Amino acid sequence: MRLTLKQRLYVIIFEADTPAGKAFDVALLWAILISIAAVMLESVPSMEERYGTVFRITEWILTVAFTIEYVVRIIASEKPRKYIFSFYGIIDFLAILPTYLSLVFVGTQYLLVIRALRLLRVFRILKLGRFVGEGEQLGRALRSSRHKIVVFLGAVLSIVVIMGTVMYLIEGGENGFTSIPRSVYWAIVTLTTVGYGDIAPQTVLGQAIASVIMIMGYAIIAVPTGIVTVELGKAQGKTKEIICESCGKGGHAPDAIFCKHCGERL
Amino acid sequence: MRLTLKQRLYVIIFEADTPAGKAFDVALLWAILISIAAVMLESVPSMEERYGTVFRITEWILTVAFTIEYVVRIIASEKPRKYIFSFYGIIDFLAILPTYLSLVFVGTQYLLVIRALRLLRVFRILKLGRFVGEGEQLGRALRSSRHKIVVFLGAVLSIVVIMGTVMYLIEGGENGFTSIPRSVYWAIVTLTTVGYGDIAPQTVLGQAIASVIMIMGYAIIAVPTGIVTVELGKAQGKTKEIICESCGKGGHAPDAIFCKHCGERL
Amino acid sequence: MRLTLKQRLYVIIFEADTPAGKAFDVALLWAILISIAAVMLESVPSMEERYGTVFRITEWILTVAFTIEYVVRIIASEKPRKYIFSFYGIIDFLAILPTYLSLVFVGTQYLLVIRALRLLRVFRILKLGRFVGEGEQLGRALRSSRHKIVVFLGAVLSIVVIMGTVMYLIEGGENGFTSIPRSVYWAIVTLTTVGYGDIAPQTVLGQAIASVIMIMGYAIIAVPTGIVTVELGKAQGKTKEIICESCGKGGHAPDAIFCKHCGERL
Amino acid sequence: MRLTLKQRLYVIIFEADTPAGKAFDVALLWAILISIAAVMLESVPSMEERYGTVFRITEWILTVAFTIEYVVRIIASEKPRKYIFSFYGIIDFLAILPTYLSLVFVGTQYLLVIRALRLLRVFRILKLGRFVGEGEQLGRALRSSRHKIVVFLGAVLSIVVIMGTVMYLIEGGENGFTSIPRSVYWAIVTLTTVGYGDIAPQTVLGQAIASVIMIMGYAIIAVPTGIVTVELGKAQGKTKEIICESCGKGGHAPDAIFCKHCGERL
Question: Domains along chain B?
Fold first, then answer.
């Protein structure tokens, strides 16, 4: 059965199972990486001076290529509207917009780094490998932890707001705690153990409270870690729950052929 | 059966199951958030200059509203004394106090951020959802880890006091380690991997000991993490509680066939 | 049966089960805490100026008291030599030594913070509580992870030595990486995510390598955490392994009275 | 049966089971440690001035010794080519190269720290101990987590590139965010909670976004930790491998009664 041109385009652009489709996806990834590198290096003054024109030409060539790709995707897909408003469709559109906007507004070309999101396509290429399964497991674990993580983040934000205000009252503006939002920012920097040191407590009482926040931050990181670990353990266990038809018991390993309880074939 | 005014007030204010009760709680949460935002922004000099009056009016309106709410809560509850001395009752009282105190004492209006604690009411609104269960699981895991965490914190504090003193003797005042409490503060900053850099060892021996403290801090964070993870795993295992119909006791393993307390088949 | 004076002293000083013994231990803990606080505060110039004499008198009174306690301990114990060379005996001796040494050498009084180690006696007071069991569980988990942790620390030290040297060659002395030991110190500060910022890479290549070290440090913290968590899970499972005498199967919960496999009394 | 000279050399140099072989390996380790220490200290200006000659003589003596050892290893091994191109063979070669190169090029002697890799031989000495098993367990856990860790690192890099660019647009060059690569470097420093503080956001919006990055970094460290913990738990469970006598396959659960591959009683 011969495929129509549209069907052949669809297979190449949207699928990664055929050699042509895979080659297309790999070329696409390289184009995206080069495009991001060009945007990043263009922002370095010394590079801009020497290779500025090269970067801009690269950007324009790749943007035109991506635009053609975007149009072909719309043409090739069965339901163009569905593609346009899909997750990948919107990213594909946002990935070409900034270059055209930069003709009108200065600085928008940096928004091109949104193309980094296009790298998510890498998962498509790896479809046949183990990555999708692994990514799904991770995603499932994170999704089923989301309620606990919301509770945890709520607690962290409350601590940070109250502690930040207390530090504002104790240290005051002359020690860098010039306002409550800034003190809250400091509390976040401290609780997450980042510790820039651009603002640091100077008074003895302030340092004592800072110590409490640090030890707190050091200890409560255990909470999200514990949550994700437990969920990940469950997500992995869940992948394939096999029940023996003969004795009705479960808990079999994924590679089991016979029931470990009664010896019947599964 | 018609409810009396008092009963209707009780349902609206204290419960979140009816539409009116839920609407009241959501409005309350927004009022609290706006109130906290006003306090925080008031402390920013540039905002204070421009919108100072707006912030103070907002605070007063909300404080009066919260005061009315507090009085209605006392009237509507069956046992007013029980509400007043309950956890939420005390927070509700503390949340209106600072504004009135600010008439007499300067600066006390910042204590209003204690209202952040009122946000804990959010759990009431979510009562029907999964949050309470998740929060309880987290709470149970933390409660049953508390003995181990006390042992852990004791060990951390001992390390920090001894290491801080050693660094005070080695580095001395000219390198920023001006007193033992300050050196202990530095040791906490280092062990918890915060690392402000406001005090940093300068001598070779001091840097060697600092390296030991850092690696120690990097490694022992594993301890609270391990504790919470294990407890959380157990807390979650307990959720699907099997109760023996014969003796009414629970705590059975998921694969138990007979009750471990009385020997009856589950 | 009446106890001799020596026996009564032994019970009071070495045990914590009787009211007198417990009272003695609590008093001892407070004395140790006050003594450590006095040493710490003495090092603060402003405190030293005002309360210097008070601190020194406190130190001498407590040192004399601890000396008397030490002598009584030797007298009261059945085998004095065994006590003197025991772990606690050596700490007790080291805890009184610095004060006497300070008569001859300047500065040795700060070594008094070694008294912090005496706080380990707190575990004795809590003997009846759950702390000992928890501490033992933690200790057992750490002990059985020690081989893995040695392998891990060996890997960390190798990374740090090699990366530190690479950064020394790239950044050089003008950017603060004045020698290999100092660069290794920087690598430790970075890998453990402490990040003082007293030394920071300035060249683009140096920042790229620093980024690799940071992400490495961020990821490999998972290793000790994983080790301790797994061991802690096992240590907790091991506390009481009960085997059913009837069917020979294990895996029972610690509170099981009947075998969950066959229903026989355990 | 008497061994030939070649065989005896082989046993001493390549094995660690005999007293002579063990003594040789321990001596080798000390030589490597001394050699690394000499290289590191040579880079300290004050040490170089005083002991420079000692360091260089030590280096040359040890390099000659290592060269002889390398030649003997080639002679003693059955298949010299296999040894030369093996992992340890290449490291052994690289470990002597820099000293000879330093005759021609200045500064290459610092590359000697590559000798740190030779310390991996330590695992050979510990062959009889528990370390190999532990190391293998760790290795197996890390190997089976590698797909998940790649997904995780990909996500981290995407976050860091996008967030870095956003901060470049918000903060701009005057606040230290002089180019996108530098902003991405800052985002890595922040997300990994290192926080040097050499670059820190100054604008309110920048600090708000920095707060989001920090809390993100603080929370997502849970992901690799969870992955490694779960894999480590599985790797350890696998250690007590039950092999079916009938079909010779392993991978049975600890409570299996029948072989899951062929159904025979284990």
Answer: 5-127 (1.20.120.350), 142-238 (1.10.287.70)
